Amino acid sequence: MPYQEAWNLQTELQQASIAHKLALRKLEEAARAEQQRKHHLLFCEHPHVYTLGKSGSADHLLLNELGLKEKGVTFFKINRGGDITYHGPGQIVGYPIFDLDGFFTDVHKYVRFIEEAVIRTLGDYGLAGKRIKGFTGVWLEASEGQPKRKICAIGVHLSRWVSMHGFAFNINTDLKYFDYIVPCGITDKDKVVTSLERELGTTIDLEEVKQRLKGHFAELFDFELQTS
To answer: Cys-Cys with 53: which of 14, 82, 85, 175 at CB 3.0–4.6 Å?
Structure first.
């Protein structure tokens, strides 16, 4: 799905969830209890695109307009937190549009829950995902001469406690596209980007990973999945 199309869909769903939430507040308590909040969990792949969060630096994009055109990459400045990252084929980009009033109103806990869903999914494949203090996302620890490797980036935006944007989980991702940016603004030489394919040495079934992710989200946020 082209990035702009996905961004438009997220915005539409977020605004609908906010409107639904505000409508619920006008109902009597008994009637309100019978109504369900609106939540959505979107998974997609994008054509090659770089997105720059509102706290990021444009200097972390290492290509000019001509370079972007030559590489076939688009570029968007967007309203999530965080710095620059890459989305592309072979990567699961997850967009939870959750009304956190239905779960908990704590953005840090929300990000930790996203990390935990990815960590549990990595565990299904025999990998120990980690958090690194001061760095959002999911990592693999340095081992056997390899540096710390980031396998999932996270950046969110909330309006009236309804979330949008989310996470980018590298599965069969072409990692060379990270060479043209400073990923997440991290310049440390002991931190690089990796993918599930690189770590396991084989191409991974994206649909299987999506199913595992959905299950872990359902467990963590305690909801029942309704596929559409």
So the answer is: 82
